[in-house]
Amino acid sequence: MAQLSLTTSIGSLELRSPLIAASGTVGSVWEWAEIAEVSHYGAAVAKSVSPVPWEGRPAPRVAPTTMGMLNGIGIQNPGIEEWSASMETRIASSRVPIWGSTVAGDVDGFAHVAKRLDAAGVGTVEVNLSCPNLEDGQMFSFDARRAGDVVEAVAGTVSVPVGAKLSPNTPDIVEVAGACHEAGADFVVLTNTAFGFGLSLPDRRPLLSGAVGGYSGPGLKPISLRCVYEVARAIPGLPIVGCGGVSTGRDVIEYLVAGASAVEMGTILLAEPKAGSRILKEVQAEMRRLEVPSVAELVGTVEEW
Ligand SMILES: Cc1cc2nc3c(=O)[nH]c(=O)nc-3n(C[C@H](O)[C@H](O)[C@H](O)COP(=O)(O)O)c2cc1C
Fold first, then answer.
1. Does ligand 1 lie within 6 Å of residue 163's CB atom?
2. Known catalytic residues?
3. pTM of the predicted structure, to 2 decimals
4. 38 pLDDT tier (thresholds 50, 70, 90)
């Protein structure tokens, strides 16, 4: 087969590769980029940043589980002021496009951080809606109206594309994705971690200090893939970035076929920071096997029974 094309587009965004490093698993990107072969990635998303520093939760806050891991980090970050000061020059000289991620407890906070991320030169702003709002402690992602309000405020503030990152625990993922789309999201990221809980024996303590945390890794894949499939079918005009449990080229292909234009990978990079090069080779081998010359031709090609 002739040369394979790995380029893909998420709306108006052109990516050299369908692989994206997921937020929170590659630090502020900079540290990881020193050791990873970043040419294999279309972009890398920095850890979510809030308006003021967040301390995060006490240890233990990460734990391995069957088919993945639990984390209850609590989005520890230095706040947007410090983040901008340390990242601006790094973003300009990075060999991989860096995306930012905004998180906050209210609409104004999300928009404030997004504005600063944009000013710092990020290629895209992701809106991390898996965060409790200050009013009632419920995740923004669980409520279509609230999620839409956040996205509208962010989209009205920045000049770069906006992606809404949703929780797989969102009761009606199609409704919330649709609200984000109408509010101005250029794409959705499906999904963040799922709620999970684990116990340590014999002491019978929860694995995480916060008890319930976020489950990620291979066990999350069928859940996130279901979200991609359902949103792609229901809202054909909304670009999707798949995320959850990607650890092989086969996983990438499945996400593309289900309707994603690109995929983010997180947990695998903690175990194997250079996984991108292996996974991209596996993607190419699968493409040859399927006799498909370009990644873009795979997107949304599920054959129904
Ligand atoms: C240790 C850790 C920290 C994370 N921090 C963030 C974060 O700051 N912002 C965010 O949007 N997602 C965060 N995530 C979620 C990942 O970006 C990703 O959505 C999730 O882990 C599912 O993908 P995976 O199965 O490939 O890891 C974090 C995940 C892990 C494991």
1. no
2. 131
3. 0.98
4. very high
